[in-house]
Specification:
With 316 residues, the chain is an alpha+beta fold. The chain is 18% helix and 28% strand. The protein starts with a strand and ends with a strand.
Length: 316
């Protein structure tokens, strides 16, 4: 079973809802129209088709309509996801969603707070051949805000995990806007470190000790394991900022998925999706804008993030 996460970078539909960023108000001088929308759908669908995950979590989807249009574009290109869901109980500009070849037992919003500053998390439960697991799609506050804001999302997620039970099969994925070693990377950044060195991804989710490859890791049941530790160091990235590789996108798993039982993580399967067409001049080939006033869509590029993939084994 291949599971992936992909921040598709602002997939907005062509319906004016009043919540769009200015450059995504349809049919204006910003050039967000039927032509550019179709190019964006086609390009993102190409990436998702080439990843060919059984389940893929998506970040930065504006609406259910945008998700349906993406799903239809994928179907036209030979990849059919029968099951889909989006966390749309709150009218944030962008939301998280999921496409799946497997049916859900359920899929529902997990509210972080009532504030529009925090995007809802999408909680999904699966039962495949009697094997249950939970999957949470996340998109935490960007680095424009301090770490205390990401901790709020982390605590809401952990509260729900504790309700389910830490001994269950649980996968946390998405754009956490956090490095797998955020507590080291942000320690000297006053803009971010307003929490006395504590981070959501490392301290709240208790992944701070889990710093070995998956073959040798065993800790307390409430500790989550970040799969980036199971990849070669040069492959630990999904984003490039000022020529430096970063891991804003992460996949973390509960301890039970490290045990080779009925469902388990396949060791050393975590990787970024690095197709040649996703790079241009050593940069990730992001969706291109003309940065003049008003900003205009060029109608080329993909996303500023790479997909991240991990594989799991289900034993009948």
């Amino acid at each position: 079973m291949k599971i992936a996460t992909y921040n598709v970078e602002n997939l907005f539909d062509l319906e004016k809802s009043g919540y769009e960023y200015d450059e995504f108000i349809p049919n204006t001088e910003a050039n967000w129209n039927q032509r550019t929308y179709k190019i964006k759908l086609k390009n993102i669908a190409q990436v998702i088709k080439d990843v060919n995950a059984d389940i893929i979590g998506l970040e930065e989807i504006e609406s259910l309509q945008a998700l349906k249009d993406l799903r239809f574009t994928l179907k036209q290109n030979g990849l059919y996801y029968q099951y889909y869901s989006i966390a749309d109980n709150k009218n944030t500009n962008i939301k998280v969603a999921i496409l799946s070849k497997y049916p859900f037992v359920y899929s529902k919003d997990l509210a972080v707070t009532t504030s529009f500053r925090y995007r809802n998390i999408l909680e999904n439960k699966f039962n495949i051949d009697g094997k249950e697991f939970y999957l949470f799609v996340n998109h935490w506050k960007s680095k424009s805000g301090p770490e205390s804001q990401r901790i709020i999302s982390a605590k809401a997620l952990l509260k729900r995990v504790n309700e389910i039970g830490c001994d269950k099969n649980i996968i946390l994925l998405g754009d956490f806007n956090s490095d797998y070693e955020e507590y080291i990377k942000f320690a000297k950044k006053r803009k971010h470190n307003d929490t006395d060195g504590k981070t959501g991804i490392n301290h709240v989710l208790k992944s701070i000790k889990q710093n070995q490859n998956a073959a040798s890791v065993r800790y307390e049941k409430e500790n989550f394991y970040n799969l980036w530790y199971d990849a070669k160091i040069e492959k630990r990235y999904s984003y490039i900022y000022k020529k430096k590789k970063e891991t804003l996108d992460n996949i973390l798993i509960s301890q039970s998925l490290l045990e080779e039982k009925d469902i388990s993580y396949i060791k050393q399967s975590i990787q970024p999706f690095e197709a040649d067409y996703l790079f241009k001049k050593e940069k990730i080939y992001a969706w291109k804008m003309i940065n003049k006033t008003p900003r205009r869509h060029k109608g080329e590029g993909y996303s500023d993030h790479l997909p991240v993939i991990a594989e799991f084994r289900i034993i009948n």
